[in-house]
């Protein structure tokens, strides 16, 4: 039987060793989840709401416990891990209060005496989740799925099995019935077989493009609904009339929070040529002030990256880009899983850090002369998750929003997920939406009822 060992990326020490589930174990877990579904779908919204609010309370009550495991497993600074757990409580509260209205029958006038659409649960939904936000990515799927009457099965990233088991613990402590939410301890090699199991009715994945492609292929082959939230190469588009001081602060936060390991991080900084020098100078001052160190220290803003191989991959991207002509303004060095906050300028669309997603603390700066050029630069990406536009002329920015090939346009703010807003992308960033009423309606049967 296979074992998985989790390693603390900051200390390099072993945290725990996990016995992976066998194929037989997985089949039994899926069967139990399937059996639970037939009872859970009969539960009332009142009952579900009570349990989901209890889940939010459990997250708040033991916030420190859950946050510390996140920090140990991926090196996320503890202050950011605490904020992540708190955000999970928010999404639970949101769907506890909104799900019943979001899934209410929609009456449609036809020739019938009565006709409407009802929103009914599908059954067992598989979630294949990444390590970078090990709690948030799961809860933004689980809260709506469970409130809709589905049951959830989680296949988490192998380096955050401790967090995965903690999430299962959260739901158990909150009082959810056994097998409403279950964690599978399994490698990626077992995902296709899990999707093929007829018990699984749908799958959602947050992760890389190759992972998304594999899951979509397996789901398509088996005619199953899928939602994909994949990579991003978001632009931070800064116009010459922006508030430079405030915009610098937001851009630093957008690129370097979670040590830059976020699909919606602002990875390409596009500056109006007329303010590029002043903006860059102020940006470098802010980046230099970011405190690196022990992730368990509440003052630390930059922790280690989640694994040494990920830091090495970022190092290769930065080195290639310098060889291609980019100018290194700050950082660029790696020590183990730690990668210095890095800023590169004179970046062109042909360079690695412009074309590829850099999943770590490295910011690429390019400049533009006209708004047409800026939009073209922003859209020059295989990804389409989001873009941030900074300007005092918000009316004009709003009128231009339709020109961006993105799932989201944020004006004078970093791109972020919010339970009240649909979240997802276009192009290679995936399809489908999470969060809001759109997210809860992804994994339901939109049933037409016609009475005459």
Please name the defining characteristics of this protein.
Aldehyde Dehydrogenase, Chain A, domain 1, Aldehyde Dehydrogenase, Chain A, domain 2, alpha/beta, six-stranded mixed β-sheet, 2 domains, 452 residues, globular
Helix content: 40-55%
Proportion of residues in β-strands: 15-25%
Q: How many discrete structural domains?
A: 2
Described by the principal axes of the CA atoms, the overall outline is globular
Q: Under the CATH scheme, which architecture of the largest domain would be assigned? A: 3-Layer(aba) Sandwich
Strand order of the largest sheet: 12-15-16-11-10-18-19
Number of helices: 15
What profile does the largest beta sheet have?
7 strands, mixed
Unreliable parts: none
Oligomer: single chain
CATH homology superfamily of the largest domain: Aldehyde Dehydrogenase, Chain A, domain 1
Rg calc: 22 Å
Secondary-structure-derived class: alpha/beta
Would you tell me the overall average pLDDT?
Answer: 98
Number of strands: 22
What's the N-to-C terminus distance?
A: 59 Å
CATH-derived topology of the largest domain: Aldehyde Dehydrogenase, Chain A, domain 1
General description of the model:
- This protein is an alpha/beta fold.
- The chain is 41% helix and 22% strand.
- The radius of gyration is 22 Å and the shape is globular.
- It starts with a strand and ends with a strand.
- The model has no long low-confidence stretch (mean pLDDT 98).
Q: Nutshell version of this structure?
A:
The chain has 452 residues and is α/β, with parallel strands linked by helices. It has 15 helices and 22 strands.
